[in-house]
Amino acid sequence: MRIALAQLNQTVGDIGGNEQRILARLQEAREAGAQLVLFPELAISGYPPEDLLLKEHFLADVGASLERIAAHTSGIVAIVGYPERSVDVYNSAAVCADGVVQAVYRKVNLPNYGVFDEVRYFQIGPGGASIEVDDVPVGLTICEDIWQPGPPLTDEALAGARVIVNISASPYEARKGRQREQMIVQRARDNLAAIAFCALVGGQDELVFDGHSLVVDHRGEVIARSAQFAEELLICDVDVASAGATRLRDTRQRAPARLAQLDVAALGSFVTDGTSDEGRPGGPVAELLDDEAEVYAALVLGTRDYVRKNGFEHVVLGLSGGIDSALVALIAVDALGPECVTCVTMPSQYSSSGTRNDAIVLARNLGVELIELPIGGPVIAFEQILRDVFADRPPDITEENLQARIRGNLLMALSNKFGWLVLTTGNKSEMSVGYSTLYGDSAGGFAVIKDVPKTMVYRLVAERSRRDPKSPVPESIVTRAPSAELRPDQRDDQSLPPYEVLDAILEGYVEEDLGREQLIARGLPAPDVERVIRLVDLAEYKRRQQPPGIKVTSKAFGRGRRLPITNRYRG
Amino acid sequence: MRIALAQLNQTVGDIGGNEQRILARLQEAREAGAQLVLFPELAISGYPPEDLLLKEHFLADVGASLERIAAHTSGIVAIVGYPERSVDVYNSAAVCADGVVQAVYRKVNLPNYGVFDEVRYFQIGPGGASIEVDDVPVGLTICEDIWQPGPPLTDEALAGARVIVNISASPYEARKGRQREQMIVQRARDNLAAIAFCALVGGQDELVFDGHSLVVDHRGEVIARSAQFAEELLICDVDVASAGATRLRDTRQRAPARLAQLDVAALGSFVTDGTSDEGRPGGPVAELLDDEAEVYAALVLGTRDYVRKNGFEHVVLGLSGGIDSALVALIAVDALGPECVTCVTMPSQYSSSGTRNDAIVLARNLGVELIELPIGGPVIAFEQILRDVFADRPPDITEENLQARIRGNLLMALSNKFGWLVLTTGNKSEMSVGYSTLYGDSAGGFAVIKDVPKTMVYRLVAERSRRDPKSPVPESIVTRAPSAELRPDQRDDQSLPPYEVLDAILEGYVEEDLGREQLIARGLPAPDVERVIRLVDLAEYKRRQQPPGIKVTSKAFGRGRRLPITNRYRG
């Protein structure tokens, strides 16, 4: 059986554009002789459409688009994800064949944890469903359905499905792709069925979908795999006869089948024009990226899609001569090209010639425009206004924040005047403990590395340098002690534990929801644990006003971590 | 039967403080002879605790607190709301009597719409439950349980409950209190049972809980009612004998009782030291506020609680001489007292003497400090820096935003130096269409009137003036055409439809999720509808970086309205 998996980069709300991409891939799949073509979860609306799903007219527009898509299915069966307005609303997969929507499967397992809010929008589907495509029984599932080891997947397999289809929109986090693949391999082995997993790809606000579609045969062998982080139409032949033969020999399913009360709807039998050739089953198998390259690719794609899908062509960022802004500049150039990136250096009296020179060298190596805007004038002007009201109070954090906000104001002025999107450069470690200035260095439209811990910042820059023989990053940027240069001889890590310790505490506290005692039991120093927890808790109000950025860890600040600002609990 | 309803102002995460408030009211209730005392939903943790519920140690601390509270229950039965860690996590009501936790009821209906995310945190409870208090059968429910006309409420009544208890944390919106009361009245009549509704009160980030606890007898008469927006221990005697007698006469329940498969757990019988006196049933019945007074009171309480619960003593705001900042100043003074409010006027070359004088008069009338910080110096300094890079481009929105951000920077400098919280002054109409400057007028910790439409701003100022014989607001503030005074002769409403039309469009589009066609069918002008929808959609990125503010409408920007930034759907 020949299956086509259309790994698409859809845009939320762009019903017309999404439809065009679906139709183009449908045509390609037909020309490739596919019998069955799969499109990702909610492919027509994009994922996640959030409260667009509360608009009747949006759902009606999606429904009309589905009808148009179905009209193009002749000689092929297409499974298309969309939000379905029926008596209630469902996260559904339409079975399109012979020019019409023949039936729908409705997602059973609705995730409502982490970044997911599907119970907010959808009614739960009634159970499993299967179709026959050229006499091959095919079970249908949507995303979370396959993350559960039980029904509807098991029901469909016990009812005879030789191929299980899963259409998905599974947000990226580091190493999740490999775990997802392992899980699917195990499901195939457990259910003695081939699994075709068709994934969404692309950036959507804080989420990146990593693609990584694949086909696993009933033995658990990965026989086809799409590239990560790119659109692709993956064509794969599946040996369904062999899967059937295996079930005669391997009778593990007999006991559960005897006991089961199967809940599987038969949604019809369809005949196609496609044919599997008689060669070896399988398709192209893309190599997987290693850990750092994967995160870097996610950041590049997430940045490119946020910029482009929001209608921007050009970005601007402050280049301090430090490693964080260097990484953001690298990502921006890789995402958009150097001609679409402007860097700005905004020296003050505390800026060193070293950082300033490094910024110049980096910008030159990257081939990006560099603007220099010294901030001394406004600093003096503000100090004059505030002199009386501040009276004889000594300088403190106020004067540091003032400088950072003058820089934010300058970047925003460039943004307003030239229509550029401001990229901010703060990392997750800083964001966690509140080491940033609201409306200052955090002012901007997209926070590229807000979910990248500082230790990973170093690893990503090293990774990028390894891949590029003429590395654009001056070594002094990597080796210099970090400083915001907002007062004489400032060093960021003097008031914090070393980044290795800081990031270990943050991983436990933020990503794993562990408490003080549990972190100390891990061997982390008690005073550091106390201090960092307190800083993280008190910075919640700052994080609430940050721009969105790309989730790459298991828990990013934003939709995946929802803590009150007003909160007296410490730890 | 004598019931005490403890309408408490709890703080999220403040387990120790919440426990102390519960114990104090428990003692008062006992001294008042109550047999049963009720505390609100999640009274120990505060509501909503959000992702604190993902911390094992937090749930353990709550459990320990519950044990300590239960130890104080002798001679009285206490129903205490708390998050329960069992095999899974439940939103539970503990039945505390004779010094221990005797049993728990687990909430059945978990809201996961609007501002609610309860399915993210809680497992669904198995069904209804009842206890006997001095031989009176009492059914237990939690918040959303009573908003459903069916089980568990109906099951408990059919199983014999004469009194239904509901412990609640129901967020305020305009006119919701009256609707809630009507609903409870109807439930009492439908179920031939008295209902004791014990509500949370107080501000928590974007939510205000309005209190308004009440007791309704089995005929649907409101026999006791707490004040709105204030803590109170409401004591009420319920005539349970009469409710029982009614069921002999009124046999509507026989038919459903015969058919029902009741799902009600019997959680025990308890004997107390309390006694209802032999006088008339009932308790104090507070008057309800009218519509404008209610919204104003919500804003005052929400502001006071956000400021105080977050550890601030003093607030600062920019006073422009316009009506929005005048309203925020009034609310701040009513919430905190004039000695805790500083106003700042920051004139530019475009400021009129009229607005400046009005700001001075208003500040004097309110008795608050007024600081004047003219922004001309920084404006010139910024223009000098940017002259070369802006070259010969004409002035545009950039220069306007620059001024607004200089003002934001000044307010934040005062905040940093003196530890004051910055209140922002933008209203919902502006927030909707994006008429504000990110990091400028929107810079601050709390956006008091972000959910108040402009037409309501005028009504609230009028309402406040009616109540105060020597109204502090100069008439010219009310009558002057609105302007941000960021360029010569600017008027806010020149580029927008009149506020009556604007707010009608926004109510339909934002609160009711209607589309273009539906709004035009309501008689709203098509060009205005098109324009406003477009502006609302494009301002999503700005709203994402706003400070929190108080929800007073049916749908506020923030947790109740979740739209993607990256979104190509228009309308």
Explain the overall architecture:
- The structure is a homodimer of 571-residue chains.
- The first copy, chain A, is of the alpha/beta class and 571 residues long.
- Chain A is built from 20 helices and 20 strands.
- Chain A has a 7-stranded mixed β-sheet with strand order 13-12-9-8-7-6-15. In chain A, strands 5-4-3-2-1-14 form a 6-stranded mixed β-sheet, with helices on one face.
- Chain A starts with a strand and ends in a 28-residue tail after the last helix.
- Chains A and B meet through helix 2, helix 9, helix 12, helix 13 and helix 18 of A and helix 2, helix 8, helix 11, helix 12 and helix 17 of B.
Major sheet of chain A: size, sense and barrel closure? Answer: 7 strands, mixed
Helical coverage of chain A, percent range? 25-40%
The chain-level structural class of chain A is alpha/beta
Question: pLDDT average of chain A, as an integer?
Answer: 96
How many whole angstroms does the radius of gyration of chain A measure? 26 Å
Poorly predicted ranges of chain A: none
First-residue to last-residue Cα separation of chain A: 55 Å
Question: Topology of this structure?
Answer:
Two copies of one chain form a homodimer.
Chain A: E1 2-7, H1 15-31, E2 36-38, H2 56-70, E3 77-85, E4 89-97, E5 100-106, H3 118-121, E6 128-133, E7 136-142, H4 144-147, H5 153-158, E8 163-168, H6 176-191, E9 194-199, E10 201-204, E11 207-210, E12 214-216, E13 222-225, E14 232-237, H7 240-249, H8 254-259, E15 264-270, H9 291-309, E16 315-318, H10 323-336, E17 341-345, H11 353-366, E18 369-372, H12 376-390, H13 397-418, E19 421-424, H14 428-433, E20 446-447, H15 454-467, H16 475-479, H17 499-511, H18 516-521, H19 526-538, H20 540-543
Parallel strand pairs in A: 1-2, 2-3, 6-15, 7-8, 8-9, 16-17, 16-19, 17-18, 19-20
Antiparallel strand pairs in A: 1-14, 3-4, 4-5, 6-7, 9-12, 10-11, 12-13
Helix pairs in contact in A: 1-2, 9-10, 9-15, 10-11, 10-15, 17-19
